[in-house]
Amino acid sequence: MNNSEKIIDAFPSSNDFDINKIRADFSILTETVKGNPLVYLDNAATSQKPTQVIEVLDQYYREYNSNIHRGVHSLSQKATDVYESARDKVKNFLNANSTKEIIFVRGATEGINLVAQSFGLSNISEGDEVIITEMEHHSNIVPWQMLCETTGATLKFIPINDAGELIMEEYAQLLSDKTKLVAVSHISNALGTINPIKTIIDKAHAVGAKVLIDGAQAVPHTRVDVQKLDCDFYVFSGHKLFGPTGIGVLYGKHALLESMPPYQGGGDMISMVTMEKTAYNALPHKFEAGTPHIAGVIGLGAAIDYVNAIDFDAAANYENELLDYALSKVDQVEGMNLVGTAKEKTSILSFTLDSIHPHDIGTILDDQGVAIRAGHHCAMPIMERFCIPATARASFAFYNTHAEVDALFDAINQCREVFG
Predict the structure, then answer these.
(1) Could you confirm whether 378 is annotated as catalytic?
(2) Global pTM value
C-alpha cells in the first residue's frame, strides 16, 4: 500500500477530471522559463490563479471600485454587496454556522496572531500551558512563544517520529487541566503529513482546552467542515486557494469571538465613538478595523466559486495520483531521500539529494524550467528534528500533470549529473 492510498480511496475516480480543461484556465502555465516550458511545483508556497479569478479582480477595479459599508452611492453599495457575498461563500465553504464567525484577515498568519493576542491575552496566564507541534510553520510557533513570554504560560510541543507523524501517545501525556489552547497544522507545509485533527480536537476539549487549526495547506486539497471537526478556530490564506495574496480567513466559534476584545482599533470596528469612550461593532466587523482588502475578499470569493465549480473531490483524487506517481519514481534516483513519509500524506514531496544543498538543487531545476521551493520552509524545528539544514520541496496542485512529474525527475537526474 502506498502512502496516499487511503486518501485516494476516499474520492471518486479521476477519470472524470479533465486536466486539459483545467490547465486552460491558468494562462501562466503556458509560460516558458529559460527556454523551457514552465513546470510550476511550488504550490505549497502559493498557487496560481485561474482566469476566472483574475477577471473578477479586473472587473472590480474597472467597473465598481469603491470603499464598502455605509456608502450610499451605487458603486459603494455594489462593492459592499459583492464583498459580503464573499463572506457567505466562505461560510458555506467551511460549513460555519454563521457569517458572524467569518473574520477577514491578511492571511493565516494574522489570523493566528489575532487569536494569540485577543483570546490568548484574555484567557491564558502564568501557570497555564499551550501545546503546539514540532512540525508547525513559524507562523504557528512564534505567536505562541510571544504570548507565553508575555503571560508566563508554558509552551509545550508534540514530537514527531521518523516518518513525520505526530506521536499521539506523547500528546495524551502533555494534556492536563493546565492546557488552555492547542494549536496544530491540519497539513504540514514541509512534510505533507495530514494530522489526525479530529482526535486532537476531541482530546483537547476533554480537558477543557480550546483548539486552533492552521488550515493554510489543507483547504486547497480537502474539504473542511468546521462544525463536524468542532474546532474553536480555523485559519487559512486565500493565495494558497487560487485567490489573491494579502487576504485570509479566521473562523471562530461565535461565543468565543463575542467574548474576545478587538485586535485592532479604527474605523468599521466601532458602532459609536466619543472622546470619552468607544462602543464596538457587532461580529464580524469588530475584528475588521480600517478599509479592508476589498479586492482580495472579492477575489477569494471568486476562487471559492472556481473550486466549487470543478469536481473538487476528483481534483483531490487526481492530486494524490500525482503524488503516488512521484513516489513511485523516488527509488529510481540514487541518493534521493524523502523527508516525510507519513501514512496519511498529501501532495508534498520534500527530499534531499546526496550531499547537494537544496538551494543548488533548486537552481539547477530552475534552469530546466522546474519551479520548486528550497530551504527550511519556515519550519526550522523540522529541519533540526531531521538533522538537515533544508530540503527541496515539490508540491502539486490539480493543474499539474504526470508529464510535469517526469520533467521534475529528469531535472533531478540532470542535477545529479552536474554535481557528479
Answers:
(1) yes
(2) 0.94
